Amino acid sequence: MNPYQFYRQFKPFYLDGYSRVQENHSLIKDIQKAINGEYSAIACYKKLAKLAPTEEEKNRIREIRNDEMRHFKAFSDIYTNITGVPPTPQLQEGCPDSYKKGLEFAIKDEQETVDFYLEIADGAKDTYIKETFRRAAADEQNHAVWFLFYFIKNQGSWRQERQMNYGAKGALEATSLTVPQMLVYALQDEYLAQARYDRIIQNFGNVRTFLRIKEAELRHITALQTLFQRYGVSLPEDHSQAYTLTPDSIKSAYAAGVQGEIDNIAMYNKFLTYNLPQDVRFVFTQLRDASQNHLAAFERGLAR
User: Fold this and answer.
1) pLDDT string in tens for the chain (304-residue length)
2) Would residue 85 be called left, alpha or beta, if left means φ above 0 and alpha means ψ between -120 and 50 degrees?
3) Coil, helix or strand for 43?
4) Among 140, 191, 200, 284, which residue's CB has the most CB atoms within a 10 Å radius?
């Protein structure tokens, strides 16, 4: 059932002694805008509930959607009382297709709606209209808090999801690769290594193994950048800090180094299965072999 059908199943109420001339055209316009907003939120939250990753989140969003349906009916009744005709709701801007973007959209929309409803309540002369919009504003504030809670709760999984498309993990997930794509993934992964070692050195001091390998990674970056220039590929921005965590112990730091080199080696091995230009194959082979040496050094550190 769409929101308009939901509204039409109820008989409109009428306020005793209510005078339509009490309210001006600006208020009617605002109520129509509020109806459109609720109509759109009902449609969007149906979609958002389907995208939610857990039953708890799905059920909470469905409850929020029920609140919006209640608001839609109350505002539609008020509009009918003022104008003498039922409203014709219209969908506003489209709802995002991803859960993350949908939550961001909902948080912003709910917060803006709180302010809008309070403005309507402050400007209305009728007590019922004032109270209806004040109660709706309180509901919208509560909705915003829930959406923010779920946005924060899911940030960890979104970080992992983003990382699957970055560096070695992105390359290993790809079903097909071009040379420019390989160069981008390779440079991203070298950026990741630099960011990882920077955090380790900042946290645990000048550990010799990490200092030495960090210098080697700088040479890897330079070698890759030469290929970027030779093949006319744009250098990617360095977003590695967004995908890097600080290990909580030196043991964890060595473990992170081991996993990073394992992924790096697997990436270059995958690249080397393709028909590559000779200079690209040479650089990828050299970087793969260097990573094998780094892996051995990190494994020794982890064993100590």
Assistant:
1) 555 555 455 444 444 434 444 447 889 999 999 999 999 999 999 999 998 888 999 999 999 999 999 999 999 999 999 988 999 999 987 788 888 889 999 999 999 999 999 999 999 989 999 999 999 999 999 999 999 988 887 776 545 545 567 889 889 988 999 999 999 999 999 998 988 888 889 888 888 888 999 898 899 999 999 999 999 999 988 888 877 777 888 888 889 889 899 999 999 999 999 999 999 999 999 999 999 999 999 899 888 7
2) beta
3) helix
4) 140
- The kind and range of the H/E element at 235 are none
Rounded to an integer, what distance in angstroms lies between the CA atom of residue 108 and that of residue 68? 16
Number of other residues whose CB lies within 10 A of the CB of residue 78: 28
Residue keyed to tokens 């473990």 = 255
With tokens 């919208």, the residue in question is 140
- Which tokens hold the place of 92? 């506003």
Q: What is the pTM of this model?
A: 0.52
Distance CA 87, CA 163 (A): 47
Contacts of 139 (CB under 8 A, 6+ apart): 67, 71
What end-to-end distance do the CA atoms of the chain give, in Å? 65
Helices (H), the chain: 3-8, 25-51, 55-83, 99-123, 127-153, 155-163, 167-173, 179-204, 208-230, 250-271, 278-303
What is the DSSP secondary structure assignment for residue 85, as one 8-state letter?
S
Q: Give the integer Cα–Cα distance in Å for 141 and 118.
A: 11
